[in-house]
Amino acid sequence: MRTRVKVCCIASPAEAAMAIRLGADAVGLVGPMPSGPGVISLDLAAEIARSVPPPVASFLLSSATTVDGLVRHVDVCRPTALQIVDAVAAPAVYAGLREAFPWLKLVQVIHVTGPESVDEARTLASSVDAFLLDSGNPNLSVKELGGTGRVHDWATSARIVRAVRVPVFLAGGLRAENAVQAIRDVAPYGLDLCSGVRTDGALDETKLAAFMRAVRSA
Fold first, then answer.
1. In terms of DSSP H, where are the helices of the chain?
2. Tens of pLDDT along 34-50?
3. Lower CB count within 10 Å: N or C terminus of the chain?
């Protein structure tokens, strides 16, 4: 099966258009976040989401953990998918989001810190439409919820892919040079990247084109 590519930290309609032209299956829009790159206003995220043509998906990244907080963000942006980057306040949050937005795909981020991440994925698999495995650290005083540019333990990520029946995206330190190895080692549904295809913070067409060639070669 073809490996999908989600290009995150999209900062303008022009960046979204470039990513889509080069073959991105989805674009990521970073909403309010305690740390990390690519944060944009919800109003700008909404403008970009409106510019994304089907069947390309628009993911809104939110660090909110309650139904009310997440609903407010989705109401403004109207993405096709909500990427929840922190642990939700209670399991009922997922049901509340389903009730509010039956059409919305729910993607839960799991920050791969050790074997316990496999158990977390198994527990949540029936509540979400997909997982995204990243390299953050939500236990820091200022939570690190993505955009680290670090590679985590892909062996644990591969165990999660095998343990659940929902699509799994792999993130964290991906670039053209390691994309093929990531696909071979983890066998994810998709790859997600931000800093690996940017230069001085801006989406770099040459780097992204090289990444897409690497994915196709795998």
1. 13-21, 42-51, 67-77, 92-100, 116-124, 154-163, 179-186, 205-217
2. 777 889 999 999 999 99
3. N
